[in-house]
Amino acid sequence: MNKIRIGIVGYGNLGKSVELGIRQNEDMELVGVFTRRDPSSIKTVTPGVNVFTMDESKQMTEQIDVMVLCGGSMSDMPVQGPEFASLFNTVDGYDTHARIPEYFAAMDKNALESQKVCIIASGWDPGMFSINRLYAEAILPAGDTYTFWGKGISQGHSDALRRIKGVKDAKQYTIPKDQAINAVRRGEMPELSTREKHWRECFVVLEEGADKERIKQEIKTMPNYFADYDTEVHFITEEELIKDHPGLPHGGLVIHHGRTGLDEKHHHVIEYRLALDSNPDFTANVLVAFARAAYRLNREGVSGAKTVVDIAPAYLSSKSAEELRRSLI
Amino acid sequence: MNKIRIGIVGYGNLGKSVELGIRQNEDMELVGVFTRRDPSSIKTVTPGVNVFTMDESKQMTEQIDVMVLCGGSMSDMPVQGPEFASLFNTVDGYDTHARIPEYFAAMDKNALESQKVCIIASGWDPGMFSINRLYAEAILPAGDTYTFWGKGISQGHSDALRRIKGVKDAKQYTIPKDQAINAVRRGEMPELSTREKHWRECFVVLEEGADKERIKQEIKTMPNYFADYDTEVHFITEEELIKDHPGLPHGGLVIHHGRTGLDEKHHHVIEYRLALDSNPDFTANVLVAFARAAYRLNREGVSGAKTVVDIAPAYLSSKSAEELRRSLI
After folding, report:
1. Residue B329: inside a domain
2. At which positions is NADP(+) bound (chains A, B) (predicted)?
3. Dihedral of alpha carbons A189, A190, A195, A199, sign
4. Which residues of B are less than 8 Å from A257 in CB distance?
5. CA of A288: which chain B residue's CA is closest?
6. Residues A103-115 pLDDT 10s
7. Is residue A39 included in any domain, yes or no?
């Protein structure tokens, strides 16, 4: 069997998780990591991984079946994405929801020209949560969908805490409110404000001599990040932060409540829930499964940009159609 | 806009629910119900629905875009399915898991000849649960998937109770065991016996003078149905059965526990859960959403038999690809 040959573009948390994710799939192999840094400065998580410059990728179109793009959505992806779409099948986790149409158009144009398949906005939200919102709304059109995130670490909010003067380190958990989730489950179709859906819990390590009260106030009133939420702030030691709050756990749920029957008397709840020890590992594994889909679709002659909802689930599985019908349907 | 014109084949619980489900979708219209009974004997749930004989369908290939097959999997579907596949796009909820490959082959042959699309084994299990098993296994290949059913009414088990001499009426609930679900969530990857996964609760109305103890024994030792389970039997009055156990609620969950990272140190749980007031209504609504997919795929020139995992989620939605990217991804 020819293995699917994967390249990783960008080697941060996500790129490292993709490296590990590929090892869980026997039909795939990692050709190498592509970085903007000096390749000799990169130490990969597993031994024997080749590291190349971004430029070297241009000569490697025959050696790589799918590039998994692991740069940031803010500044890397809008530039890198279309460049790689001109040369490779790609998968990415572009997650700036508001700009997906624009990014899709740029990727689609180049992928159609290069006759490659580029799957964008994969991961879990956007990604698996998008898929679940779609299925739920299509099945129960008389209903409402709610998405909750957490309990998990928000990297953006943790960064915001760390930028405050006097804060040495910090982690922030986004936590859904149980009463909101239960109201949705009961079919009350609540109109939920930002404050009613989630609350935020901050674990903050202070610089020596920093002013606790001033920092707590600054956090709780920070616009966009914390002002619209109930926020709890805990001051802890550096040792406690390392010991009690390791890694990047996350998760969340999509709940759809819908009604059917005469007078809509029947209520139904569809719930899709994720509880993840590692946000980058799970995201990476979703990208890797969609890399398989990109490869297969392209071999069938398909080209252009796709989102996760454009991909039939069977393309993600390493099992054959016959095997799926026999063992999984 | 041309509406998608639907026909319903078979008018039991499921057919009636399809009739109601179509009304929730503005892009669809019901052309009529097809029955083996005398059409004049059928009273439809909503007024103004045309009722035809099965034979009349053969002259209506130009008037119907998709036939939703609502017969039984045991004896109706293996005959009806391939017959309709020769004339129409079809969707069905064929649910004899072990015979899906055989049924698929028969449907595929005829659908390829007639150049129609026939989506088989839709509904929730097989159906939405199959989709979720596939996604979970593809994303977290180092892991295990568990399916639990209930709490809900098993019609087959309720029928088995009613066949016992001295039983006037009965309903049987299949209920997953919490300790099994929690062991899966904790990542213990338990090997679960039939008895450890579910238990069965029976509500039985006796004929006058029937022997309680003999009937309880007969239930608890009934092979295939109850002998392998912990079974509780409650004797209640006919009034209580009607008042406290109405309708056909059901549900269940697919849980996948998987591991990632170096030494597989990160644990992840994916859960898909359904809580349904009406099993036939929900099943019908899944069939109706897949009817939209069958129609669209066929208009794109696709033909042959498909299962739910062969269908990209976007085909189920009444929203355009642009709208999905803008509002749902």
Report:
1. no
2. 11-14, 35-37, 70-73, 122-126
3. negative
4. none
5. B139
6. 999 999 999 999 9
7. yes
